[in-house]
């Protein structure tokens, strides 16, 4: 069948938005300020990339769209939004503009923004704990997600020997690395943690959710796909940040470079970065070979998102 | 049997501390700054009240100490600690001192403190998702806890008709209420949410964790005990804040009054507040009548904690 990636994107985003609309307390729910702040940032024009990847991973594994998968996607988007709200705070990146709109603390004040981020994290876990699936599946998904958005230690069963990358850990490394000349190892570690961990777990969680007894090989392949594709997306983001202006990006352009932040093109240059992103996508595709035609949507998404212009 | 409440407190605190020591990444785990910040605030001399209540509720219902209950208690303490770290931030209460020690942002900077709070919330949910219990029990506990530490809406099954109090919601109400002359209804709503919800869920979660098939009556009684005793603890806290100096309290005394914060003694006066706390404890005891002698530890704890001097 012919695959229209724009249809995949728009139908996945619509499913996610419906779930978010239902799951987030309404703007007139007391206390008002925090619910309005949570909605302000959640409905600020995000692409719903993580939910869409989750939904398509679940569809690939299950052969159909499992009941409640949009709620799982919505939970992942809440976690992404919470991380952006806190990352934009004056004490962190001090960003006034995000997706062309005032950031949460600019619109609602710093105290409310801190608490709105906190509440989005909580609501994400509440949402996962309320998914209509077998309790063992819910627990497995929740544990994977919690590890992925943490400081990056504590992969269950492997605590002593490996550090799983974690989203908060990536933010900390990013802060600790400011002003230091970025090395290749540092850039990769930050990317894998700060953005890669949540993208990867979106795909892994979709796979866990879509199958009653997921095989280790399936989960490992989804993890590899997520790690490779996630890194490619981030490299493309960094390249766009260096080559486009603020109006095209909807955020302050060149900010990462200005602050001497650790980015892929800062280490490798733009041309090599684009080549690396293409190689990572090829590797990501390889991981999905055993799924055959069922992998077409995930592959199409990965291809499209690394070829994007904003 | 004679019940020594100080033994209950010290053994419960020791169990909790051992679990926290094991569950929190070590101070030399990369990235250092956040793990040290998480430990700084977690091991700053807290009484471990919530874990101890959780442990004793589980023991009462199970007749023994269920495996892993100290980890559940540790997760509750992580949530309490995260809320304190964020509450102390300059944008919120702007407190420099907590339990006689510099607050997290004073010791580690604001960015790290924000992320350390975030990471403690995440680790709490990761810990609950890793408890050695039936998945259905884990999911039930996790959902209760998430609702209790959220904005206060979304009690599952009762969404349209009731607002369950939530910890973050209480913090928001507290901020929104500053400078407004406190009313009795406002004070009670804030107390039930800001501190009451987590205390109550500590007891309810202990009950859920301690029984394979908890009866609705058991959970309802534990909830009533928690709500009444939790409100009594908070009233005693407010009275101590007005009547003691900073050295006795280990934090800045009179701060709540100075900021015209909504507290029980500010509305009712000190004498009436003490009477109310005593009545609440009597009501809390009534809720546990069917448990007979097995309820003695929980009752002794409640009695002791409302009679405390700091």
UniProtKB/TrEMBL annotation, chains A, B:
Record GO terms (molecular function): metal ion binding; prenyltransferase activity
Pfam families, per database record: polyprenyl_synt (PF00348)
GO cellular component terms listed in the entry, alphabetical order: cytoplasm
UniProt feature coiled coil, ranges: none
Cofactor: Mg(2+)
Classification via InterPro entries: Isoprenoid_synthase_dom_sf, Polyprenyl_synt, Polyprenyl_synt_CS, Prenyl_diphosphate_synthase
Signal peptide: none
BP term (GO), one: terpenoid biosynthetic process
Gene3D superfamilies xref list: Farnesyl Diphosphate Synthase
Source species, domain of life: Bacteria
Family indicated by similarity: Belongs to the FPP/GGPP synthase family.
NCBIfam families membership: FPPsyn
Protein name: Farnesyl-diphosphate synthase
Organism encoding this protein: Granulicella rosea
Lineage start: Bacteria, Pseudomonadati, Acidobacteriota, Terriglobia, Terriglobales
